[in-house]
Amino acid sequence: FMVAIALAVAAGRFRFLEEIFYPYIMTVKSTPVASFIVLCLIWLNSKSLSVFIAFLIVLPIVYTNVLQGISSTDRKLLEMADLFRVKWWRRLLYIYIPQITPYLISACSVSIGMSFKAGIAAELIGIPSGSIGERLYEAKVYLDTGDLFAWSLVIITISVLFEKLFIYVSKLILKSGGKTKVEH
Q1: Which of 46, 67, 119, 150 can pair with 50 through a Cys bridge, CB separation 3.0 to 4.6 Å?
Q2: Residue 175 confidence (pLDDT)
Q3: What per-residue string of b and e applies to 144-168 under the rule 16 or more CB within 10 Å gives b?
Q4: Amino acid 177: pLDDT
């Protein structure tokens, strides 16, 4: 999440970086998750596989949305900030963050669910011991549909709760960043 934001900010600031990142982001976005999982099994152990796969899934979603938010920033506000020599941190707080917030919230909403799906798929293929993916694999091997549905419900519940919590906290942080007390 943070890497994607940092890359998007850098690409938004320096156009040549956007052009450099573009083929890599498109490759990651376009490659099937299963291909990454199998390829990464060669390089990573099965315990760290799901985290890396979730990273690969979240990166292009957050990067693309944040970059779009930066690109959509009101140019007139930026011109006004230049005219009045507004410091960079005030621009960030009062111009960029409010403009990027809807894009970032949307990216979080999509990427959290996708990261859970991809992470569990990586566990299912890599089969690290003690993981939900291992439990799903065992349910498949033993044709235990009850366990399959139960673990699927657990995954859905955790994913939805985590998404709601993350979005709630993100909104609190992002919305409070742009508000200050009005002094009389």
Answers
A1: 119
A2: 75
A3: eeeebeebeeebeeebeeebeebee
A4: 57
